[in-house]
Design a protein that fits this description.
Strand order of the largest sheet: 5-4-1-3-2-19-13-16-17-18
CATH superfamily of the largest domain: YerB-like
CATH topology of the largest domain: YerB-like fold
CATH class of the largest domain: Alpha Beta
Number of strands: 20
CATH architecture of the largest domain: 3-Layer(bba) Sandwich
Mean pLDDT: 88
Structural class: alpha+beta
Number of helices: 4
Number of domains: 2
Strand content: 25-35%
Order of helices and strands: HEEEHEHEEEHEEEEEEEEEEEEE
Length: 348
C-alpha cells in the first residue's frame, strides 16, 4: 500500500469510528419505573362482614352473633294457633308427637321478640336438637322420663319443670294450658343469674349467597303429610323468594307479626321414629334419630335438591347431593320438616 493510500484509509477509518461513536452516544437510555419484583405481589382478601350463623344474613357486629341460641318448645295443636312470634325464629324443627299432632322446636338467635309461645312440654327429639345448637332450653310440662333424660345431660335447662318462673307469664288470650308465654330477654337474664354461659361460638348452617333468580322455578308447592291430623303445604312466592305455610288447609298465621308464616328454606328430613312410651289414652311418644344421617330434600328459590343429611351430636346438620357436593341453603329462615321414612311428600 502506498503512503498516500494508507493515509486516505486511516482518515476514512477515523471518520467511520467517529460517526459510530456519535450515533451510539445519541441513543436514549431505557429507564424502568417499575420496582424490582423479588416475588409475586398479592392482594389481601377483604374481611368477611359479620353474619348471623343460623340465617346467613348480615349482622350488626361480631359480638352480638356470639350470644347463646335460645330453643323454645312451641305447641301446634289447633287450640294453640295462631302462635306468637314463631315466624321470628331463625330455625324451626317440626315433628310428630302424640296423636299425630306436631310440635315445634324454635331456635331464636338473630331476633329476640318479647313474647313467644305457647310454650309446651319437651320431647325426646329435643335431646338431639338442643345440643346441636348449644342452646338454652325453654319448655314446660315434660314427662317424668323426659325430664330425667334431660337432667342427665349438660343441657342448660330453663324450664318451668326446673323451677324457673321469672321469664314466663300466662296470657288471657286463650285458656290453659295453651296460654303460657316466655320473654327471651328474661331468659338470658335468668341464664346469667344462674351462672350459665351467655355466649357461644355458634356452629351455623351452610349458605349459598349467590343470587339464584336466574334459575327457573320448578317446584311451586310442597305437601308434607305428617299424619292424618296434620297436613302441611308450602307454596313458593317468587316475589319474596320464600315459601308460605298452610296448616290443615288454612293459612298458618302468626299472631305476633300478623303475617302468614314463611321460610326461605324448607328442608324435609326423613328420620327414624322409635316408639318410646304410651300415654294414658294410648298415644305413642317417639324418640326421633336426629344424630346420624338420612334422606333429605332441600327446597329453596323454587328449586328442589335431593340428597343426604348428616348431623353429629354437637353441630347442626349438613346436606350433600348424590355426587358428594354440598347442598347449601339460601340466606334466611329455615324450617326442618322431620318425617318418618314411610312418609311420601308430593310436589307441583
Amino acid at each position: 500500500m502506498t503512503a498516500r493510500r494508507y493515509v486516505a484509509f486511516a482518515v476514512t477509518a477515523s471518520m467511520l469510528a467517529a460517526l459510530v461513536a456519535g450515533c451510539a452516544s445519541s441513543e436514549p437510555k431505557i429507564v424502568s419505573f417499575w420496582p424490582r419484583a423479588d416475588k409475586e405481589r398479592t392482594v389481601p382478601k377483604p374481611a368477611e362482614p359479620p353474619r348471623w350463623p343460623l340465617t346467613g344474613l348480615d349482622a350488626p357486629d361480631d359480638e352480638v352473633t356470639r350470644r347463646r341460641v335460645v330453643s323454645v318448645k312451641i305447641e301446634n295443636s289447633p287450640e294453640s294457633r295462631p302462635q306468637v312470634n314463631l315466624a321470628l325464629a331463625d330455625v324451626v324443627y317440626e315433628s310428630v308427637t302424640e296423636g299425630g299432632i306436631t310440635r315445634f322446636n324454635a331456635l331464636y338467635h338473630s331476633k329476640e321478640p318479647d313474647k313467644v309461645g305457647p310454650v309446651r312440654s319437651a320431647r325426646l327429639s329435643d335431646l338431639h336438637i338442643v345440643p346441636q345448637y348449644d342452646a338454652l332450653f325453654v319448655f314446660s310440662g315434660a314427662s317424668t322420663s323426659v325430664n330425667a333424660r334431660i337432667n342427665k345431660t349438660s343441657i342448660d335447662n330453663l324450664s318451668e319443670d326446673a323451677g324457673i318462673t321469672y321469664p314466663f307469664f300466662r296470657g288471657n288470650d286463650r285458656p290453659r294450658p295453651h296460654n303460657l308465654y316466655v320473654v327471651l330477654k328474661k331468659v338470658r337474664e335468668e341464664a346469667a343469674r344462674r351462672k350459665m354461659r351467655t355466649q357461644q361460638d355458634v356452629k351455623g348452617l351452610a349458605f349459598d349467597r349467590r343470587h339464584a333468580q336466574e334459575s327457573s322455578i320448578t317446584i311451586t308447592e310442597i305437601a308434607v303429610p305428617f299424619s292424618p291430623a296434620n297436613k302441611v303445604v308450602w307454596t313458593y312466592d317468587p316475589t319474596t323468594r320464600s315459601y308460605l305455610r298452610t296448616n290443615n288447609g288454612k293459612k298458618h298465621m302468626d299472631a305476633g307479626t300478623g303475617k302468614q308464616i314463611s321460610a326461605r328454606n324448607v328442608v324435609v328430613m326423613w328420620a327414624k321414629y322409635s316408639a318410646a312410651s304410651h300415654d294414658k289414652v294410648g298415644s305413642t311418644t317417639y324418640d326421633i334419630a336426629l344424630v346420624g344421617s338420612g334422606r333429605c330434600s332441600v327446597f329453596r328459590d323454587g328449586q328442589r335438591f335431593d340428597g343426604t343429611w348428616t348431623a353429629p351430636a354437637d353441630a347442626p346438620p349438613t346436606f350433600k347431593a348424590a355426587d358428594g357436593s354440598p347442598i347449601r341453603l339460601a340466606p334466611g329462615t329455615t324450617w326442618f320438616q322431620v318425617v318418618q321414612p314411610s312418609v311420601n311428600i308430593t310436589m307441583k
